[in-house]
Design brief:
- The protein has helices at about 10-40, 195, 200-205, 235-250, 265-275, 300-305, 320-325, 365-385, 400-420; strands at about 135-145, 145-155, 160-165, 180-185, 210-215, 255-265, 285, 340-345, 390-395.
- The chain is an alpha/beta fold and about 425 residues long.
- Helices cover about 30% and strands about 15% of the residues.
- The N and C termini lie far apart (about 55 Å).
- The protein is built from nine helices and nine strands.
Length: about 425
């Protein structure tokens, strides 16, 4: 792939064209995964348990064990080979239709790889900055106990927002702290996703807990970008770990008892952050997350889907393989010992919340086949490493919020118990 040194300002229109080309290639690539998928299935790794589909809002039965291993019948498989005249799906990993903000760091090709620098913004009086100078520049109430916090961040070279949901018991003048759930959104979405698309407000209302929902970028890669090995802007991991968390703790009474949850690419972020930062989170939950980015065939898929960014995110899959592995949940799974873990995914078959006549190449089916494939490998890696986890690989289901809302409810009791969030 040609390296870019002097990158122009990224065009959203051009990005859209690049992504359509990328998706067409990804669909073709998906077919090549079938051979490796079948080979994995034929090894007979694991057994499956029959579990009826629960309606949204149904808690997880206590009988769901850790190290649940799916058998071949619930293992994700790639889309079938179809004629070239078939229209390819939109982004298989899309989790919404939010337009990126004009200053989205993922789209600022002119700043990509540049040295972190603080935007020219004034901080709000009385608010403490992060160690690297990141500061709060605006605080806006957007709902009952719901605020948008604007942060000027050097590691992104921009001002971006984080949404915070406070419990009813929260007070500004107190020495008390509250347990926190950090919730990461998926690709093609924004920090508003959790309150717009999910049931997080209703679910969290039953516990004395803060929920922090930071911006994660349109690519949703949850990493400090490789940028030809020179690093630089954007550094999403540093933003989330070194800036958002300290700012929440220094200014809003967020406590050190933390959980990380996420869906799709945000699920990858939740798991890899817990792995890469030991002791930071007591629990990590992934819903349809990208948990094995180096699995056979997956590097090519991600490179095609992220064509507009080229190899700037994790680097070339071959030359920078060590960096890919350093952001692969399954590769680093042994680091999750002592952390509570919940992993769930469907397998792309039509499920209870889907139209029975869904096209086999529907984006939601293709995306969940990929996530189910990676989740299966992650769960097997956890068993091999002796890491107890709770996994719900529920079979039929697509890449959509109806399933993630259900899984949030199912996992919530374990999440809140791990961080000591009491019921209200």
């Amino acid at each position: 792939m040609e390296k870019r040194t002097n990158r122009p300002v990224a065009s959203i229109k051009r990005r859209s064209i690049d992504k359509k080309i990328a998706i067409a290639s990804a669909v073709a690539i998906a077919v090549t995964l079938s051979g490796s998928m079948i080979a994995i299935a034929q090894t007979g790794m694991g057994r499956s348990e029959e579990r009826p589909q629960a309606a949204a809002g149904t808690p997880t039965p206590s009988s769901i064990p850790g190290n649940f291993l799916p058998g071949p019948e619930s293992m994700a498989s790639p889309p079938p080979n179809t004629p070239r005249t078939r229209k390819p799906p939109s982004n298989p990993f899309s989790t919404g239709n939010e337009r990126p903000s004009p200053n989205d760091p993922d789209l600022r090709g002119d700043r990509r790889g540049s040295k972190p620098r603080m935007p020219k913004s004034k901080g709000l009086p009385g608010f403490k900055p992060a160690d690297d100078g990141a500061k709060i520049t605006k605080l806006e109430k957007v709902g009952t106990s719901l605020y948008d916090v604007t942060i000027a961040t050097p590691v992104l070279g921009a001002e971006v927002k984080t949404r915070v949901l406070f419990p009813k018991s929260w007070k500004s003048k107190t020495t008390r702290t509250w347990p926190v759930v950090y919730a990461y959104h998926g690709g093609n979405n924004r920090y508003t996703s959790w309150t717009k698309d999910s049931n997080i407000r209703q679910v969290a209302a039953g516990h004395d807990v803060m929920v922090v929902m930071p911006e994660g970028g349109s690519n949703g890669s949850y990493t400090n970008w490789w940028n030809d090995g020179k690093g630089g802007i954007p550094q999403w991991e540093n933003f989330h770990i070194r800036e958002v968390i300290p700012l929440m703790e220094r200014n809003f009474h967020a406590g050190s008892s933390r959980a990380a949850i996420g869906l799709s690419s945000g699920g990858q972020g939740a798991i890899t952050y817990a792995e890469r930062h030991p002791g930071m989170f007591k629990y990590a939950a992934s819903y349809s997350g990208a948990l094995n980015i180096t699995a056979p065939g997956m590097p090519t898929v991600f490179m095609q889907l992220n064509a507009a960014a080229g190899d700037d995110i994790w680097g070339d899959p071959v030359a920078a393989r060590a960096n890919w592995r350093a952001h692969d949940g399954a590769v680093m799974v042994s680091r999750l010992k002592g952390v509570g873990v919940y992993v769930s995914s469907g397998d792309g078959r039509v499920g209870p919340y889907d139209d029975p006549g869904m096209d086999p190449l529907h984006a939601g089916r293709v995306g969940e086949q990929f996530s189910g494939y990676m989740a299966t490998r992650f769960v097997n890696a956890a068993k091999a490493a002796g890491v107890p986890i709770t996994a719900n690989l529920y079979g039929p289901g697509t890449h959509k919020w109806a399933y993630w809302k259900r899984e949030l409810v199912r996992s919530w009791p374990a999440i809140t118990a791990a961080i000591g969030a009491t019921k209200t």
